[in-house]
Design goal:
heterodimer, A: 7-stranded antiparallel beta sheet, 5-stranded antiparallel beta sheet, 30% helix, 20% strand, B: alpha+beta, Dna Ligase, domain 1, 9-stranded mixed beta sheet, 6-stranded mixed beta sheet, 35 strands, globular
Chain lengths: 575, 689
Amino acid sequence: MSAAPGEIEIQVLWNRLLAVVEEQAQTLVRTAFSTAAREAGDISAGVFDMQGRMLAQAVTGTPGHVNSMARSVRHFLDAFPPATLHDGDVLITNDPWKGTGHLFDLTVVTPIFLEGRAVALFACTTHVVDIGGLGVSAEGRQIYHEGLYIPPMHLARLGIMNEDLLAIVRANVREPVQVVGDIHALAACNETGGRRLRQMMREFDLADLDRIGEEIITRSRRAMGEAVGRLPRGSWSASMTIDGFEGPVTLAATLSLAGDRVLVDYTGTSGLSRYAINCPLCYTEAYTCFAVKAALAPWIPNNTGTLDAVVVTAPENTIVNAPHPAAVYARSVIGHMLPDVVFGCLDQALPLTVPAEGTSSLWNLSLLAGHGLTGTEGTGTRAFNVTTFHSGGAGARPRQDGLSATPFPSGVRAVPVEITEAITPLVIWRKELRAGSGGPGRQRGGLGQRMEIGHRDGAAFAIQARFERGIHPARGRDGGRPGATGRLSLLSGASLGLKGLQVIPAGDRLVVEMPGGGGYGDPLTRHPTAVARDVSYGLIDTAAAERDYGVVICADGLPDPDATARRRAALGQRP
Amino acid sequence: MDVGPRLAVDIGGTFTDLVLALPDRWLSAKVLTTPEAPERGVLDGTSAILAQAGVAAGDLALVIHGTTLATNALIERKGAKTALVTTAGFRDTLEIAHEHRFEQYDLYMERPEPLVPRPWRYEVPERIAADGAVLLPMDETAVVRIGARLRAEGFGAVAVSFLHAYRNDVHERRAREILSRFIVPELISISSEVCPEIREYERTSTTVANAYVLPLMEGYLRRLQDGLGTMGCAAPLLLMMSSGGITTVETARRFPIRLVESGPAGGAMLAQVLAAANGIDRALAFDMGGTTAKITLIDDQQPQRARQFEIARVARFVKGSGIPVRIPVIDMVEIGAGGGSIVRVDGLGRIAVGPDSAGSRPGPVSYGRGGSLPTVTDADLVLGWIDPARFAGGQITLDAVAAARVVADSVASPLGMELGRAALGITELVTETMASAARIHALENGKETAGRTMIAFGGAAPLHAARLAQKLGIDRVLVPVGAGVGSAHGFLSAPIGYEVVRTRLMALDAFDAALVHALFAAMRAEAEQVVRLGSPEAALHEVRTAYMRYRGQGHEIAVPLPAGPYTADMLYDAFTTTYQALYGRTIPNLAVEVLTWTLALAEMRRLPACLPDVPPAPPPPPAARRRLIDPCTGATVEAEVHDRAVLSAGARVVGPAVIVEAETSTLVPTGFRAGPNAAGHILIERIAR
């Protein structure tokens, strides 16, 4: 095709750049070791121009890297200006404040050269298996407890790997082979992207990405501006209180508009936690931006043009803008809650658009047994340590029930029961929808799950708990009611705590009841047929149908219209 | 081996293709698919093609059939009223699925409704452990109670899926025995037979899907056999499977889920034969029809294979949005890009093509059947690539004026482009979409598209092949004889075959050679029993595969195994070789394990020998000339039009040119030349610069 890109060429090039980063991301997903990367797609990949503007980003399983990775490239360029970079150089960091929010995430950036000139940067991030320190625990009090900290530096110079850095990594992490393998995978996926980019530039006879980059950013910015422009002018505030680690945490936000930008400010949010649930601002930005974009313009690809349309601020020393040296390992506990708060603001500006609150924070089960933890060593029991990803119910939507047992905003996947049982001594006796847990509403909240877990040999085991929505439920919207709170208990009856290490004594079983999502709209306006179906499906019982929905179910399972009308009138609803 | 006339019939989304192979020649035909009673299209088409050939139905030696009926029943939810009987505590497995959202940014996403609603899922107290031990014996009185209810409530099919039944099937077999007192045993599918593989959601989903389509397929196959019988045809009927093998009606009735995606598998089998006959070691099969395009990689004459597939995706072509089935399939990437794919301009002013298709009804605007949205075929027509009078064998006369109007109104005006540029934009973007999907697919398998030879078939492929090849770094494209009905041709070359699977988690540091030997012996016996139904005497060919991973990884890779006996070192070496090829590296000192074992058994089939080269011959004068827009230069050019039937072997037509035939047209852009080889297949080659 001709050298000056016309309209068709611009569209083809844009699609090609999106395909290039998709290839880059797929390379990483398939070669990474950590479960988070493989099963949950907890990675990101993108291409940037030499000013550090992101032109395309792969759509992956985690919104947590959306802005944070984009911003990290600017930090790299500040430390290593383009003029100092050479073909074969590769940069790396896991700085939570300059990368993606905790030490487990390694970000790698590679400059790409064409005919001796730097033309683009590829960046990628993955969550590694281990980074030393306390490991997979929210009990850290400072970043120094949380493992190896790699400031932005060269991973390779002129194609030669920085073996000193790799030796330090090997000496500090529990799974050196896998972690160093992941570092190689990160570098290799950028190379894959770079190779494809060079092919594209030769095919289309491009010397640089200036023109196409400008077009992508301008068009996306304009489309995002149009979406923002459809909002009424004003300022809206919302807040949500959650259980927190050592005490309740309030997340407060004010959303306002400035021209074609959305401003979200978290003034009023609680201060720092002593535990590792603090968020660096970059991570707060990522989940905030995700929520705004999902509500306003989900179809516009992520790039600097779209991301710049959302400006996030928060006072320093709040739990959503934690400075060094706060502990940040489990920052997702807070980060996953932020879209609910943003939706609380947006609902006032854009009625009938956003969902009710959901479980939001994941209910991952970190189960283990071993020396010093469960005290069962020496009895012939295998030590084990396994984390499986699970979710409670999501919030109801304006015109749809909430999704049951489905993550939001995270994009993880569960591990099959049969796989977990094949690699651990655990037996999962039940894994089913938790009846009655969905928040009542015209649209019902999604149901949580009930799981019952025992040890094959009847030995003791433990769970590393950091669960939310145990005290403060997911609230409904527009008259919808809250979902059920979550609970951990023993099959023999006693309750367990939702934070910290909990031991399941020998012979007993762990019962996990995950929270439900909030309902949407007045439950007394839910269609009686839908209520009757929920009863016949065993999602609610007849008592709840009457109490929460004012629907009286006959013996044949169908709603009784007259009795329902009377019941609803008595509950304060016009017949 | 077969002497008499053989008939292949492929029901696709838009057209039903027929190929009749006679000892000295073959004929093909295309009729519109009749979704309401698919056998009617098949039987009408059969009568027509037999009449055209002057062959009596009674003279047919073999009928090979591939159908999308099972797939359609799953998409349209027209299967039987099906019950699921499962382990107590797990009735929601089918609904909870992977606890996953397949669309990250869509607040209104819905997962597919399970095929069996919650009240129809029955729980039985029983439990098998991961190692096959019985943790809780089955409560047989509970099964009896369920059986009575199933009969009372008139279920048409039953699926039984218990946890870890792939490891120990004792409870499933006993449950079937008990349920058979209440339900016809043929209507009960058990997971340890349909899909004896670890991962409860996929196994249950596959078993339920099998049960769901079983009564319907049974009825269809009976009506088809009856119809053929009435016609006087006494030839055996064999069914094409998604694995690329063919099987008997008996097996198809038990495991109808294995018949989904049989048409595309036929296309891959054709490509395999063509790769052999033309000496192509690294091929890329490109099959583009009215609704979708499919791309398959074929290395050393072996199409890439896989063990899972998704049907009835609620978000078309979005991974994770459909019903997963674990069956042996030819591994292909399917893209919502066909002649009927609908074109829109999105909110960013971008041309978006597909994935939805206008299908055969209403079809593209130019079909004149009520379609009002522009499609790829409409754009092709505006570009001058198609002769409106000769489309699909002349069955439909295309309305070029209507096509131009809709492309102008829906794409050119909103974007402020002239008509020809807008039409070229449409084909460029749909080609780009296919190219991206092909590159990702290759990458996922540790392979490259560049340097391959493309084998292009299906009605829309020969028009778009050369430009796609260019985008993929491919310099040679083979457009076979009968390219427009490629899949049906492939049926004729497919072997009778069957594949079985077993899950046995085995760490190589605790490798049990005797157990593995016994496992493969049992698998061989099971496969042989099925294959011998259709092929009592032929020599058989066996392929063994182990699905292996580093301990701690979540996905296995398919590792080809030589014939046994095996040692742990041998498996370790086989694993690292495959891992290296896929990912470019291995991880030393990390334990390796096998999760699943498969054995594929098929008739030994001699692939054709490589064809001789033919000396160049001068091209005949063009039959006509046509103005068209060249896909590679974007320029309007005067192209030669040649009739494929009169081009002799060795003749080379230089692009821009169009080579026309009954079912399709081959577009030769500027910078390419093309002509038939010794077997009449058109080879399009890039002219070296």
